[in-house]
Amino acid sequence: MNDALTPGAAARLLGVAPTTLRSWDRRYGIGPGERSPGGHRRYSPADMDRLRELCRLVGEGFPPASAARRVLEQDAPTYRSTSADVSSEDSPDEAHRTGHESTYAPSGGSLAPSDHGSGRPSRRRSGGDTLPLGPAPPLLQGIARAAMRMDCELVERLLWSALEEHGTVATWENLAMPLLYGMGRKWEDTRRYVEVEHLLSWSVSSVLRRVTGPAPSTARPVVLACLPHEMHGLPLEALAAALRERGRPQRVLGPCTPAEATVRTIARTAPSAVVLWCHAKGDQGVATLRAVARATSAGRLRTALYTAGPGWREAGPLTRITDGHLSSLTEAMTHLLR
């Protein structure tokens, strides 16, 4: 009993709420196998191992009841928590009706959102330790749960597995973007969980940096730069990874790139295209766009200029000096590989 944990301590180690532990114990029979002399619940190391496995399976997209059955099947048949009263919630028939079992594909299947929703977060307010994703595939829900538990290892493993199977574009548009949008909505609704947003962004960035592809071709590179005031360049990292995956050389200047640095890069590298990212409208956007447009037209070789990001929505006629606006990663790849 010396190494047994209280429910509060167990919940903190697992990154879940104590009410979640009570729910798993009551519904699925996975809970503490010991009691203190005073009758209080205590979690042994073996109990914690079972709960970690349950968290892992739920993070991979299994409905909690299905995940619990798998955990219990791995244990000795005599195991049972001290207060288990397993309910029929999330039974196989119910899971089939809601599409959980049929849409989850541990080693295959599509990343496209289910027919019940677009994969983007719901506009409904969200409470508790959940993200407002609306109807979403179980894999997306599982990654969201892992992110809210701050389990960055599981988040990165699930994202990388999806990326290896489906590619950068599909993983970004169907998993990473809905997660990041959902995290933004969570902050708007609660003004909390900034730490989860930072951890999720870091995890997505870490996975994107691991993407490799064929040896870069001898084609002229694509330059990817943010505006001087733009601090968030994660979408450019996704575009760089997608280009790398296809063997297309690129030069990423990243967040807060001074206009003169982008201009000098154009002169030094003679790129085939330049993409200027702007998420939030800023005073330096117009001046930077004009300066870069002059630089792209001054070279002996043709250089295409594209804008990307929602910050350009009010640029109006200024976008006419570019070759177009890239509204998605799919569209960007279509233009840049053309």
Which features would summarize this protein structure in a list?
338 residues; alpha/beta; Multidrug-efflux Transporter Regulator, Chain: A, Domain 2; Rossmann fold; 5-stranded parallel beta sheet; two-stranded antiparallel ribbon; 14 helices; 7 strands; elongated; DNA-binding
Outline of the structure:
The protein is 49% helix and 8% strand. The chain is an alpha/beta fold.
Q: List the helices and strands in order.
A: HHEEHHHHHHHHEHEHEHEEH
Task: Report the CATH topology name of the largest domain.
Answer: Rossmann fold
Tell me about the largest β-sheet: 5 strands, parallel
Number of helices: 14
How would you name the CATH homologous superfamily of the largest domain? Cobalamin-binding domain
By secondary-structure content and strand pairing, the structural class works out as alpha/beta
Q: What shape does the CA trace take?
A: elongated
Radius of gyration: 24 Å
Oligomer: single chain
- Residue fraction in strands: 5-15%
Mean pLDDT: 82
Describe it.
The protein is α/β, with parallel strands linked by helices and 338 residues long. It folds into three domains: 86 residues, Orthogonal Bundle (Multidrug-efflux Transporter Regulator, Chain: A, Domain 2); 105 residues, no CATH class; 115 residues, Rossmann fold. It has 14 helices and seven strands. The strands form two sheets. Strands 4-3-5-6-7 form a five-stranded parallel beta sheet, with helices on both faces. Strand 5, helix 13 and strand 6 form a beta-alpha-beta unit. The radius of gyration is 24 Å and the shape is elongated. The protein starts with 6 loop residues before the first helix and ends with a helix. About 11% of the residues have low confidence.
